[in-house]
């Protein structure tokens, strides 16, 4: 009886100690369910909930994963979409949570026991001699941190989960290295989205350079760093365009601390009601996510590096181009190792040779005769690329010497020469297209059967002699032909049935003076001015990243050529010749709306009435694309740069044909390109199906710019308290819309039109696409034919804008079309 009473009293003491610990750590009321003790373990469906209710800990099973695998995890308790932020037993899942238990072990460590009562996972920390499970408790804090502490001294934590991150950094969590012990924190990705076991990508502090962290592949290969962090600017040296995020009005700050004992990065949130995290994704990217309550989903606000910069994202013997569909392509002479995986979008398996090289390392021959090598192997060149990793420098005085040296070495798979000769002996990985076309050239080794020889030099010489003789004998005929060509400079053109001209590439070279007069660059290429023989000026766009076959390309041109509207740019012709893909448009003398709208001189400001008519004209052009064509055409890149102005300043939507050219699967193209900041609808990020309402959102963001004559991305840099769309919505409700107009126009604008434009813009940028009007309704509202109700304030834009003083919108750059 006495023993029973003693045991009961002992349990009561433990319970009181646990309550005291909770009160001291959290200032929370008694009776909280955030404590584990030796007599109060966790099992089955039980879970701990932090005192503020923000986080929970319990047994977790990944959705879609094997049903027999369970883990101890911490997740957001108030987020309906279960999102783990820490997992204890990543490498040793259990099969039955009902017969497993998380408890305090006899040595004071927190342990997970399986049904046979073997230790599956342990906090594995050193407990002071004499301590036991009667003096240690585990508590889940409202920061998401699970801690062990002595009941007698709660300020001295023994162990905390924040020191052992998995794939996630939370606000308040240090990420760095201990200078005394030399131990660095490491975030490790999941193996895939349904398997939380450690994957092949990780993030760790750079052991050699302070204020810098590295992305590591397979614990061996550093493949990216954002560069050194500058606390004054809040930017990394490798990402100079990154906006400072430690501003007074931001919802969080990112700081760097360096002292004698440690260096670390610290994410701090200023509003505990906002859920924010950064994750190293199974794709190898680091992603910043914020929970949007209205959308009930996580919103991506930054991602780094680009997918092409992630090591092995395309596997071996392929190359990565961010502006192509698909993103990864096998090199010439190679095919996908797993066609099924390739079609599903998983390219990590890479490519394999169609025909084996005549000699290889396995053949036992490393130095075959030079003549044999020249007969059996050849090279093909890939220009303007970022060279793959793993090269070896070889002595060679010239490119030809470098090539010969590679041919004489059976293990040489490719070479490059830029003053230095480089060989590759291992599988080519991370070969990337250089977006600035300033990269190097690489020569890929293939069997001769993969690169048939051209005509012999002797044959070419005979041909040249014949041609020269014919020219000499037919000089008079050539003179007559010259006169004919002067009358018709562009030859070989033919109509394809829809009033489109199929140009030859050399004809376009002629009328553009070899593409010397560049008008600008766009989402998928550069634009050049040309003049036809009759004096008609044209704009010629050289497409990049469009790899359709000639027959398919001509079929698309036939369809696009039938689309005519006064507010759509007119397509005059095209070129589809070998690898060349060009579009010939009518020339717009006043250039883009971007150039006219954002002129610095107040003397050239577009008057309000002209701006308002431009807004209506754009809306009419989009209405035609969405509703009046045989198939709905979603533009997907509405911005001032893609609105052109004719001689009378009438607007014409341009580049709409590219949406149709690329088909309906825009997801890979549009989410991997860079440049358009602040126009992209949120559904692009969330991965939901894209509809014409994505264009409506972009139109609304552009309409804000037309109203204010200032770029969306500049707001927040001008000492303004609010992101401009939020300011507009609030001024509408206050009845002071004139305050949002640019100062040069305040005495000129029609206030009724201004109010209409402001209200339409606010409706267009609603997060829920079902709340946005269609473009036909936009036209009616702007023309005063349809009544406009008071729009709700688009609060989620404020979250994105404040997330990093526009860094949220900056992140859209890596997921949106090029400007």
List the helices and strands and how they pair.
Blueprint: H1 2-26, E1 35-36, E2 47-49, E3 55-60, E4 71-76, E5 84-87, E6 101-104, E7 110-113, E8 119-122, E9 136-140, E10 146-150, E11 153-160, E12 168-169, E13 174-178, E14 186-192, E15 195-205, E16 213-217, E17 221-224, E18 229-230, E19 235-236, E20 252-258, E21 262-269, E22 276-280, E23 286-292, E24 297-304, E25 318-320, E26 328-330, E27 334-336, H2 339-343, E28 351-353, H3 370-376, E29 377-386, E30 391-394, H4 399-407, E31 414-417, E32 421-424, E33 431-433, E34 440-447, H5 457-473, H6 475-487, E35 494-495, E36 501-502, H7 505-511, E37 518-522, E38 525-531, E39 537-543, H8 550-560, E40 571-577, E41 580-586, H9 593-597, H10 608-628, E42 643-645, E43 651-653, H11 656-661, H12 667-670, H13 682-686, H14 693-708, H15 724-734, H16 751-764, H17 775-782, H18 795-802, H19 807-812
State Rg.
32 Å
Report the total helices: 19
What is the spatial order of strands in the main beta sheet?
A: 26-25-33-29-34-31-32-30
- Tell me the CATH superfamily of the largest domain: Transferase(Phosphotransferase) domain 1
Q: SS-based structural class?
A: alpha+beta
Overall pLDDT level: 78
Ranges where pLDDT stays below 50 over 5 or more residues in a row are 1-32, 241-249, 361-374, 455-459, 479-497, 663-675, 715-721, 803-819
Query: How would you describe the shape?
Result: globular
Percent helix? 10-25%
Keywords: ATP-binding, Disulfide bond, EGF-like domain, Glycoprotein, Kinase, Membrane, Nucleotide-binding, Receptor, Serine/threonine-protein kinase, Signal, Transferase, Transmembrane, Transmembrane helix
GO molecular function: ATP binding; carbohydrate binding; protein serine kinase activity; protein serine/threonine kinase activity
Subcellular location: Membrane
GO cellular component, one term: membrane
């Amino acid at each position: 009886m006495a023993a029973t009473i003693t045991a009961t009293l002992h349990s009561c003491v433990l319970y009181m100690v646990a309550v005291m610990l909770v009160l001291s750590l959290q200032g929370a009321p008694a009776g909280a369910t955030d404590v584990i003790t030796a007599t109060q373990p966790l099992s089955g469906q039980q879970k701990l909930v932090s005192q503020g209710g923000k986080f929970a800990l319990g047994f977790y099973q990944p959705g879609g994963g094997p049903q027999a695998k369970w883990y101890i995890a911490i997740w957001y308790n108030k987020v309906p979409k279960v999102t783990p932020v820490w997992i204890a037993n990543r490498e040793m899942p259990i099969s039955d949570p009902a017969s497993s238990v998380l408890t305090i072990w006899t040595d004071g460590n927190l342990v997970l026991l399986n049904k046979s009562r073997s230790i599956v996972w342990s906090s594995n920390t050193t407990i002071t001699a004499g301590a036991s499970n009667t003096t240690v408790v585990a508590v889940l804090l409202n920061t998401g941190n699970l801690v062990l502490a002595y009941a007698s001294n709660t300020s001295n934590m023994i162990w905390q989960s924040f020191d052992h991150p998995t794939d996630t950094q939370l606000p308040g969590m240090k990420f760095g290295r201990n200078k005394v012990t030399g131990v660095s924190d490491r975030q490790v990705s999941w193996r895939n989205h349904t398997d939380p076991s450690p994957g092949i990508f990780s993030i760790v502090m750079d052991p050699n350079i302070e204020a810098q962290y590295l992305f590591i592949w397979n614990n061996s290969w550093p493949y990216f760093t954002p560069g050194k962090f500058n606390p004054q600017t809040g930017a990394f040296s490798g990402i100079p365009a990154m906006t400072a995020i430690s501003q007074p009005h931001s919802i969080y700050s990112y700081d760097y601390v360096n002292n004698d004992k440690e260096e670390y990065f610290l994410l701090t949130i200023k509003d505990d009601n906002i859920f924010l995290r950064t994750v190293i994704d199974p794709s190898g990217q680091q992603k910043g996510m914020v929970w949007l309550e209205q959308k009930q989903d996580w919103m991506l606000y930054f991602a780094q590096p680009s997918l092409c910069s992630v090591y092995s994202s395309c596997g071996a013997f392929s190359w990565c181009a961010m502006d192509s569909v698909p993103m990864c392509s096998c090199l010439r002479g190679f095919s996908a190792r797993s066609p099924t995986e390739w079609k599903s979008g998983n390219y990590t398996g890479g490519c394999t040779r169609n025909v084996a090289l005549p000699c290889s390392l396995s053949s036992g021959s490393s130095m075959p005769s030079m003549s044999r090598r020249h007969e059996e192997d050849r090279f093909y060149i890939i220009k303007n690329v970022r060279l793959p990793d793993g090269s070896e420098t070889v002595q060679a005085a010239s490119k030809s010497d470098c090539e010969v040296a590679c041919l004489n070495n059976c293990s040489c798979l490719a070479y490059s020469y830029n003053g230095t000769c480089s060989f590759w002996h291992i599988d080519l990985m991370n070969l990337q297209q250089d977006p600035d076309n300033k990269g190097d050239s690489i020569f890929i080794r293939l069997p001769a059967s993969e690169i048939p020889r051209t005509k012999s030099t002797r044959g070419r010489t005979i041909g040249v002699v014949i041609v020269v003789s014919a020219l000499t004998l037919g000089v008079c005929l050539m003179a007559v032909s010259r006169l004919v060509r002067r009358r018709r400079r562009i030859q070989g053109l033919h109509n394809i049935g829809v009033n489109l001209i199929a140009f030859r590439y050399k004809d376009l070279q002629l009328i553009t003076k070899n593409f010397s007069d560049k008008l600008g660059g766009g989402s998928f290429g550069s634009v050049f001015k040309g003049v036809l023989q009759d004096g008609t000026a044209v704009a010629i766009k050289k497409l990049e990243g469009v790899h359709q076959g000639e027959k398919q390309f001509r079929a698309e041109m036939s369809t696009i050529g039938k689309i005519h509207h006064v507010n759509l740019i007119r397509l005059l012709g095209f070129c589809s010749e070998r690898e060349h893909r060009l579009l010939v448009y009518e020339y717009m003398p006043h250039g883009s709306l971007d150039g006219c709208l954002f002129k610095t001189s107040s003397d050239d400001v577009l008057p309000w009435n002209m701006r308002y008519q431009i807004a209506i004209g754009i809306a009419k052009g989009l209405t035609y694309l969405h509703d009046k064509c045989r198939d709905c055409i979603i533009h997907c890149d509405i911005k001032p740069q893609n609105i052109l102005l004719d001689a009378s300043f009438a607007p014409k939507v341009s580049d709409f044909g590219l949406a149709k050219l690329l088909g309906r699967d825009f997801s890979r193209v549009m989410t991997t390109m860079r440049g358009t900041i602040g126009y992209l609808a949120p559904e692009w990020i969330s991965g939901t199906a894209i509809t014409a309402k994505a264009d409506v959102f972009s139109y609304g963001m552009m309409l804000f710019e037309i109203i204010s004559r200032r770029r969306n991305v500049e707001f927040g840099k001008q000492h303004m308290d609010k992101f401009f769309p939020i300011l507009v919505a609030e001024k509408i409700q206050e009845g002071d819309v004139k305050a949002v107009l640019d100062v040069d126009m305040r005495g000129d604008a029609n206030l009724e039109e201004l109010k209409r434009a402001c209200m339409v813009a606010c409706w267009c940028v609603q997060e829920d696409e079902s709340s946005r009007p269609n473009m036909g309704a936009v036209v009616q509202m702007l023309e005063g034919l349809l009544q406009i109700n008071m729009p709700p304030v688009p609060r989620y834009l404020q979250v994105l804008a404040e997330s990093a003083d526009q860094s949220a919108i900056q992140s859209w750059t890596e997921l949106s079309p090029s400007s």
